[in-house]
Write a structure and sequence with these properties.
This protein has 362 residues and is α/β, with parallel strands linked by helices. It has 14 helices and 16 strands. Helix content is 44%, strand content 20%. The strands form 4 sheets. An 8-stranded parallel β-sheet has the order 4-14-13-12-11-10-6-5. A 3-stranded antiparallel β-sheet has the order 1-2-3. Strands 7-8-9 form a 3-stranded antiparallel β-sheet. Helix 6 runs parallel beside helix 7 and helix 8 packs parallel to helix 9.
């Protein structure tokens, strides 16, 4: 059973609860990316301590490695991964489309060469749903066609029509009790985004993701797209903005009415020594931190900031010790989860505009 309840509002921003079966997520929520079923270097227990309520895994990657038979035999992705929290599966569409020249898109599905072994593959919307239902996530996504930026309107229109057609096929193929979300497309063209969003609402989904954002378009266009789609999508369904993880982008999207976010930013940046702080990113390998005995972020309650200094973290990275990227990743995840917690509190107390001013002025 899927239930979405809005408990507080502040303008268009919402704070609520998304329930899928026995699992609950408080929204707005941020999910780290765990492509292959794990957030790199971070155990499920540590994720929980960081305040994480859900993760995003990738259906295509898991279907190919370790394979659906392995996950099914283990009892589903929650038991296989040891993560008992919320899980969303990406349909695999974006990853397939990003293979560039190796991809050929047809109305029936997508032909491409496997990034794993170079073999030829053909994936249909029905295949994607079968993968995701076998994997056993709480929320699964419809198969869609995402185009990059810039793109001409006719090419974007064809992608929208395929996305709608594939969404219908996904809905028909969907047999499990998992929540199924549709994904809007349309690039930067409002007429196409309305066409896509209204068609998906007509098909009927448990929630809606805003796709085709952060694919190369200017930030101002991203904001416009998100605000526009939120104005078309139903208020009583959860809205999910895929692939967005910066503070400014999250604040802007929450203000428009988005409920769920995911991004590789905290993990990818952590592995390369970029530390999130309220004053901006610290590039910990810089020489200025060699003798810096301050915590990476003052006031942060994560394990890194409570126990170690900038100088020590820099030492770990310079030495090539795996602990450095692990601690940096842990901190970045906790930093974003604390940020989301503050947003939920601000919405409940109707002071989101004040919070936005504080963060956007830094």
């Amino acid at each position: 059973m899927v239930e979405f309840r809005i408990e507080n509002t502040d303008g268009k921003a919402r704070a609520g609860v998304l329930r899928c079966g026995e699992r609950i997520v408080r929204t707005p929520a941020f999910f780290p990316v765990a492509t292959a079923g794990a957030v790199k270097g971070i155990t499920p227990e540590v994720l929980r301590r960081c305040g994480v309520s859900g993760i995003l895994v990738n259906a295509y990657h898991l279907a190919r490695r370790p394979g659906l038979d392995v996950i099914k035999q283990a009892g589903g992705i929650h038991r296989f991964s040891g993560w008992d929290g919320f899980i969303i599966t990406d349909s695999g569409g974006y990853q397939v489309m990003s293979l560039g020249e190796n991809v050929k898109v047809y109305d029936e599905g997508v032909y491409f060469r496997s990034p794993f072994d170079g073999s030829e593959e053909f994936v249909t919307p029905k295949d994607s749903i079968m993968w995701q239902e076998t994997i056993g996530a709480d929320v699964i996504m419809a198969f869609d066609e995402c185009v990059g930026y810039p793109v001409d309107e006719e090419r974007a229109r064809r992608a929208v029509e395929r996305t709608i057609r594939w969404a219908e096929e996904c809905k028909k193929a969907h047999k499990s009790e998992q929540a199924l979300f549709g994904i809007t497309q349309g690039s930067v063209f409002e007429n196409l985004r309305r066409r896509c969003a209204e068609s998906l609402v007509g098909i009927g989904f448990d929630g809606y993701a805003i796709g085709g954002v952060s694919v190369g378009e200017p930030v101002t266009e991203s904001h416009r797209i998100v605000h526009y789609d939120c104005g078309v999508l139903p208020e009583n369904k959860p809205r999910y903005l895929m692939g967005v993880g910066s503070l400014r982008e999250i604040l802007e999207a929450v203000n428009a009415g988005v409920d769920i976010f995911d991004s590789v930013l905290p993990t990818r940046n952590g592995r390369t020594g970029q530390i999130f702080t309220l004053e901006g990113r610290l590039r910990i390998l810089a020489k200025e931190f060699r003798f810096d005995n301050n915590p990476p972020e003052r006031g942060c309650d994560c394990y890194l900031c409570v126990n170690f200094t900038r100088a020590y973290l820099r030492h770990l990275f310079v030495s090539g010790d795996i602990l450095g990227p692990v601690l940096a990743t842990l901190h970045n995840i906790r930093f974003l989860e604390r940020f989301i917690e503050k947003i939920r509190e601000a919405i409940a107390e109707k002071r989101l505009s004040s919070l936005r001013q504080i963060y956007l002025s830094q």
